[in-house]
Amino acid sequence: MNLATTEAQDRIAALESAVAGGEPVPAQTILSALADPSTLVRQRAIALAARHLPPEALGDLLRDDDNAVLRNAAFAALERQGPYAVPYLARLTLDGNNEVATFAVQILALISDAASSHALLPLVDHPDRNIAQSVIEALGSLQVAEAVPTLIRFLEADLWLQFAAVSALGRLGDPRAVRPLLNLISSEMLHEPAIEALGRIGSSEALGPLVKLLYESDRIPLRDHVLRAVASILERNLHDGALLTRIRRTRRSGAGGVVEYLGGLLGADDLEFARAAVTVVVFLQIWELLPAVLLRSADPEEARWLTGLLERSRRQLQRPFLQLLGSSDLRVRRGALSCGVFDGRALPTLLACLDDPEADVRAAACRAIGSLRKPEAIPALVRCLRAGSGAERVAAAHALGLMPGAGLRVLAPDLDPSVDPDRLVTALEILEAAHSSALARQVSALLSDPRPAIRRAALRVAGHHRGQAVESRILALLADSDVSVRTEAVEILVRRRCHRAEGTLISLLSSEEPLRYQVIRGLGRLRVTAAAQPLVQLYPSALPHERVEVIAALNQIAAPGLLPFLKDRLRERDLETRRVASDGLARCASPEHVEDLLALVHDGDWTVRNHVAWGLGRLALPSLREPLLLLARDVEPVVARTARTSLAKLPGEPPGPTG
Amino acid sequence: MKHVGDEEWKLLSDLISSQYGLVFPHARRGLLEHRLQTRLDRLHLTSFAEYYRFLVCHPDRDLELRELSQLITNNETYFFRETHQFQLLTKHVIPELEPQLRRRPLRILSAGCSSGDEPYSIVISLQEAGLDATGPGWSIDACDLSPHRLKQARLGRYEPGHLRACSEAMRHLYFEPGDDAAGSFQLRSRHQRGVHFFEANLVAPHLALPGAPYDIIFCRNVLIYFSEVAFDAAITRFHGALADRGFLFLGHSESLIGRRDDFRPVRIEGSILYRKVPSGGRR
Questions:
Q1: In A, which residues are within 8 Å of B235 by CB distance?
Q2: Which residues face B22 on adjacent strands?
Q3: ipTM attached to this prediction
């Protein structure tokens, strides 16, 4: 057994219990726990210290040279205090103890509160190099644009500060820094951070020199840095066709073994480098490596990423991809079809792929054809739908669902009630996906089919048909004999925003489960004001899961007079009930009800506190700064983030966190 | 596609952690969003907050939690993944257990077996080592959270990607063409012998492991997705289910070194496996 973990959990429980005992907060207990040997205990103590201790108490621990664990914990707790600690930390940057001042600067950088920049800028020329270096880094983290000229000046300083300035300029992403940074790529000491910074800035101005370096350098660590920078810059400049053409001209085929280098990365496990290599291969058009790029598409996640990347360079890629459809390797053919981006001119070649000997390739061809949305491809896809393998049928159905709805009349035979039910449902799913109004009469007839699965599928298609007549048919299905059809009808009417259905839906609040659950939610989604009172009346007799949805629906409707109902719900014991009620309170409380929100600032549930933090930001009253500062150092980081965003909405506040 | 907000993310990831011991780092948030989208559509839900409420309040929550379990677990598995571990099994572990195996079958647990690639790889390795010819054979318990994947495991039919670590010769020896047109491979029935599949949540409070005590437990690339507490709970459970001095195989990025005193790391041919320290015998 892992005794250390068990004992640590016991100590966490004791710590929580001591803090839950109320005021005064057991400061000494928390401070002791900050030096606990277990990381688990220290993490909890840091959260509690941030919430309950003043920054001054934590700042004192930064002076403790002898206990690095305690000092690190205090550092982390001050960071978690966020804007609450900023004024104190700003003062601490002027501390006589240079080490403490350095820590203060570093914590301000991590908090990323824009208000810190005024305290930091004057310190950039501090005689202590550690402080100056931390300030330079902080200016980068805080994205202080006015610091750029100063930071460029530091590129001429001693090496210690040069490193910091290079990194800060990269974080700032300001194009004014590109030329000075390019001057450093020949520096033996600074070329790696300079290249990384240029990649982060992403300016096209750096692309030519870096591509040249990629081709000419055969030193692996350097080349890796250059590759990542080039990929990053390429991704941000794909719209600039003239630039890409110019860069490709500078490419010298095979120089410096770059093809071997990139090829090795394409087959490697390191995702970051592999993706950078893919970007470079595709956009510098190193076509001999395209098959290796496509082999990566066997992994679905990689295929998704690759498709997104290729989508951005549609025109240049069609020809090489079409050529790869003749590859003898089925993985390459399948990859080209799955990830390639084609236009209408490719249709004949793609249709020919439907005769490929491999079923996987034929299925991929169906999908590629579907993405063209060309009605002339419909007959070929229907043939695959009716006669293909399982994978082909699925792909053909997907492709047909992308076609213009009017072209799908060809599916008429599939809607005959006598055909196999799977075939019938598939045809209906295609019409639904295409939002097709074709074959409306047959679809309407299927709404009376004796099989519930067919009626449900037909309902989903009819949901896209226009007109009062079809709406009346759907409304009639609210009285269907099968509950799954009735449930589907509720969903379709809500999606259609059918206000004719409101009265019927309200009357269905007296229906039995599971329909009522959908009706309650539907009334909320439609924001039916007339449903507010019936929902309130239903609440006491509703089932537990319905009750929560009743509150959620009332929150959406936001009818006048909701507040007393919500306050009653907040007095209930059920956690989910209180959570949804606090959400409603945060959404509808007006300034005169701010006390109701403030009463929940210390609530034991983090979700309730999170809603309060959001609601206080919505009201944006200057008087709410103190409670929001309290919530901004909440033990739960989600609450702290919400509170910080809300703080930034208060009048006279600096803009929100910059990190 | 709908996006999950910070609050919804925490509610869902806390629920998943408490139910299954799995942690979802922030970097995988997009993946979870994508996977859960189909469930929201199916249930006619319009937000992840509604989905969370469904999972905790709705009468059908148990069914939905099973659906969820299939969406959140990693499908990454293939035959002979980390091949050297199967070599360690037959070259070093089995010979050490040999005296006992003259009297009774070898007992193995494959925990988090997914679609069966691991337990079947064990069977093939044992057959290749001649164990079926020389002794009373083996009994392999293979469990997973996902009933869908267990169904596939029982069928023994695999897409080509599951055979990525198999040579052409291995494909012919151990598999035959599937009876569908999609190019799948059917594991030959003789390599499915002695494997018993069952559904199990490794962090459930009450979990019956029918074949315990086991000589060997394989749990590879499963615990990396567990929270620290769930990781420890699972290892404690394995300790209880192993015979004294039994062996535990973990994935290459999962380690007990410096973390547990009830397992002793054993380094063989550059790989590490863990050996149970019997209760009372701890250092």
A1: 2
A2: B226
A3: 0.81
